[in-house]
Amino acid sequence: MGEKRVGEQTIAFKNPPSIISTAAIAGPKEGEGPLRDYYDVILQDDLFGEESWEKAESKMQKEAVRLALEKLKIDEKDIDYIFAGDLLNQLMASSLAARDYKIPFFGLYGACSTLTESMSLASMAVDGGYADYVIASTSSHFCSAERQFRFPLEHGNQRPPTSQWTVTGAGAAVISSKGNGPYITYVTTGRVVDFGIKDANNMGAAMAPAAADTILRHFKDTGRTNKDYDLIITGDLGKVGMELTLDILKKQGFDMSTNYSDCGVKVFDLTQQDVHSGGSGCGCSAIVFCGYLYKQIMEGNLNKILLISTGALLSPTSTMQGESIPGIAHAVAIERGV
Amino acid sequence: MEHTNEERLKKEFQDMVKKSAPSSNFLKDCLAAFVVGGFICVIGQFVMNFFIGLGIPKEDVGYYVATIMVFLGAFLTGLGVYDNIGKFAGAGSIVPITGFSNSIVAPAMEFKREGFVFGVGAKMFVIAGPVLVYGISSSVIVGIIYYIINLFK
């Protein structure tokens, strides 16, 4: 067994890496949401001066990386790796963005779980001694995700109340061996969990068992409970998935009703913004963490959080072939001091 | 043993999801579909009466009405209005011919960036294609049945 492993799925870092900088870029609708004061940039329009939504998404990711580095006053060439991903085929947004910076690049697909997936791998690279500065970045765009997974935008159809709204946004975090926190202390890597949900309009339900599985596994591996955290926050389960997760965890003896939330619920005003169950997409946990949560930790309003980005690993093809939706969730424990 | 336990958990969870999932407001959706769908038909009727008033023969007037309604659907899609109507009316604006027009124009607009051949041309019938395939196929089948029945008259 690896010397830094605890339990079955968790790593406890010997020299916890610091998140030394973040940047978040949000779309116009997100910019009207409750967390609008925490984003670095809010787009005026969905196209961001580009000619297609995919290119706009790519530009958002590039800008997020640029801003995160600008805050540090370190140069691109000091960065050892970038771990990045998005929702598009062949990771178009991340790859096109990475074309413009000269940083060794790992492209990741974890659907909407990509933020904590990239943060996990970045932390491992840093604690393992393979790198001093690593960037984790992700993006999603409502319009590019719609055309990839659903209907053309102008098509007049109705969404069911369980559906979610893909967040237009990008976030980047710089993870380093040098720095004074906030520290990444543990990562719990999720297993693919599929409880047989086939409704692509109810991804919250499809991902809830994966989220619960990873949270329970994290507790078991580390010996921690929900009481050890100021906030436990999932990536994009939305209202429906969040309630299901609470239910599952309660049955397992963890009452998390006071310190549990979901980025998809936080990012929009569910009563006013017509997003049904809440936000989703890689950008969802990216802008909530890189914008809101990171600043809350830096200001001392939060000391210890467990961030669990959640992904629905479906493809349009798997849905058409009648497959159920595999879910995944990766947990990252972030603490102000160690 | 382990396996059956997992199956039971899955079953339990699926029941839980069914119970907890908020359902659409059935009555409100039906009413919206009824009113908007009906309104589109009323517009169609106006157009029809207008052309009959111009002296277009009754058997031809359907083509004129269809042309105008398809244009209206496409026009409102182009203006970015039809998706909002659809969000409110659901089937009420999908089922009439204006909805058919919307389902062709929407992907045509969306995929313009991929070029006119592999974008617009290839993707235009992404939604309407199945309707055309099965619409035309069933009309052929009905035609054959009609022909056979007439043989025995």
What does this structure look like?
The complex is a heterodimer of chains A (338) and B (153). The model of chain A has no long low-confidence stretch (mean pLDDT 95). The longest helix of chain A is centred in the first third of the chain and has 20 residues. In chain A, 33% of the residues lie in helices and 22% in strands. In chain A, α1 packs across α2. Chain A is of the alpha/beta class. In chain A, β11, α6 and β12 form a beta-alpha-beta unit. In chain A, strands 1-2-10-15-14-11-12 form a 7-stranded mixed β-sheet, sandwiched between helices. The radius of gyration of chain A is 18 Å and the shape is globular. Chain B has a domain of 104 residues. In chain B, α2 packs across α3, α3 crosses α6 and α6 runs antiparallel to α7. Chain B starts with a helix and ends with a helix. In chain B, 22% of the residues are buried. The interface between A and B is medium-sized, with 27 and 36 residues.
Topology:
The complex is a heterodimer of chains A (338) and B (153).
Chain A: E1 5-6, E2 10-12, E3 18-26, E4 41-42, H1 53-72, E5 81-85, H2 92-100, E6 105-107, H3 114-127, E7 133-140, H4 142-149, E8 165-166, E9 169-176, E10 183-188, H5 203-222, E11 231-234, H6 238-251, E12 260-262, H7 263-266, E13 279-280, H8 282-298, E14 304-312, H9 316-320, E15 327-335
Parallel strand pairs in A: 3-4, 5-6, 5-7, 8-13, 11-12, 11-14
Antiparallel strand pairs in A: 1-2, 2-10, 3-9, 7-9, 10-15, 14-15
Helix pairs in contact in A: 1-2, 5-6
Chain B: H1 2-20, H2 26-53, H3 61-78, H4 82-89, H5 91-94, H6 97-110, H7 116-123, H8 128-151
Helix pairs in contact in B: 2-3, 3-6, 6-7
